[in-house]
Design brief:
By secondary structure, this protein is an alpha+beta fold. It is 19% helix and 33% strand. The strands form 4 sheets. Strands 5, 6, 7, 8, 9, 17, 18 and 19 form an 8-stranded mixed beta sheet that branches. Strands 1, 10, 11, 12, 15 and 16 form a 6-stranded mixed beta sheet that branches. A 3-stranded antiparallel beta sheet has the order 3-2-4. β2 and β3 form a beta hairpin. It starts with a helix and ends in a 5-residue tail after the last helix.
């Protein structure tokens, strides 16, 4: 008996029921968090060549080693095959998860390793939903987890110039007034994001923001096509390399024709909303990195080189800690 698949099916049925309930009745600010989250769950449109879908974290955790940073700068395994309950709640900057069989240092960021690992794990689709009530506003946050982030400079992806890391976290925000009226949306894109008024946000069935997910990077956009990446999110070393080869700054690619996911009304992959808070489930309090070092790759003599860490979890990102301030710092577009 595959308990994970059964739970995923139950979650999908619950998502369909809540979506139908939210769509059929008026929803006020006093509505339960589950109803609010179902009412505004985004519709995600994936590029035809995207290898991943947003999933639960359990199988990723189980397929990783829990590691501790030592005084010599090396990482030591402290917990093979951890469970979500095994993850520590202290040690920011000195603990991490590390997938045992794959590495972003591999050819094309390990895409040919991580994609099969995700599929074989059979992780249920999910988006983690959070309701934050701050400063006379209600912020609905939809956190998406992907096994791997492999950004390729070329489309389709090639082992030419790329950046990769394990454990990708992205977020879509919907801001409501204190009375429950939608005011604004804000989509994560690399180190920043983009925000729009609710009236300028593309939507399905009136309340579900449409999100175009860029291939590999999983940056979120308001439209399909080719998107210039914000220069603030491009490392200076990468800019120098592109200039050396007389290449333009990188773009994201999010073309139509791929899978569609989200609420049942999208008529695609039903992605259940799993509610999270600052305390629950237990893994939300894990302060470490969701993967080993990031890698950047360029033609010889550069090759694949580490440059920084994989991302931390939602509760340790600025968009969670102070969502209104974080969103206000993102450019409108």
């Amino acid at each position: 008996m595959n308990v994970r698949r059964i739970l995923g099916t139950i979650g999908a049925i619950g998502s369909v029921f809540l979506a139908a309930l939210a769509g059929a009745t008026p929803v006020t600010a006093a509505a339960p968090a589950s109803v609010l989250l179902a009412k505004y769950e985004p519709v995600t449109r994936f590029d035809p060549q995207e290898s991943f879908r947003p999933t639960t974290v359990d199988s990723f955790i189980a397929g990783s080693n829990l590691e501790q940073l030592g005084t010599t700068g090396s990482w030591t395994v402290t917990g093979p095959s951890p469970t979500p309950e095994d993850l520590p709640t202290t040690g920011a900057g000195s603990v991490r998860l590390n997938q045992r069989t794959c590495s972003p240092s591999m050819s094309l960021g390990g895409l040919s390793c991580y994609a099969p690992a995700w599929k074989e794990a059979g992780a249920p689709l999910a988006v983690y939903g959070r309701v934050a009530r701050e400063r006379n506003r209600i912020v609905l946050q939809y956190w998406y987890f992907y096994y791997d982030d492999v950004y390729s400079y070329t489309y389709p992806p090639l082992d030419f110039i790329w950046q990769a890391h394990e454990g990708d976290w992205e977020v879509v925000n919907v801001v409501l007034s204190s009375s429950g009226q939608p005011l604004q949306s804000a989509y994560s894109e690399h180190c920043l994001g983009t925000r729009r008024s609710w009236t300028a946000t593309p939507r399905l069935a009136g309340t579900h923001p449409i999100v175009h997910v860029a291939i590999g990077s999983h940056a979120n956009y308001y439209s399909s096509g080719i998107h210039q990446i914000n220069a603030k999110c491009i490392p200076a070393a990468a800019v120098a390399i592109l200039k050396k080869y007389a290449l333009p700054l990188p773009f994201d690619f999010s073309f139509n024709g791929g899978a569609v996911g989200g609420p049942a009304v999208a008529r695609g992959l039903v992605i259940p909303v799993v509610q999270v808070t600052a305390q629950s489930p237990s893994w939300i309090q894990f302060p470490g990195y969701w993967g080993e070092s990031q890698y950047f790759h360029a033609p010889p003599p550069i090759g694949s080189v580490p440059f920084g860490n994989s991302p931390v979890g939602p509760a340790f990102q600025s968009t969670w800690k102070d969502p209104l301030r974080a969103i206000a710092s993102w450019p409108s577009g």
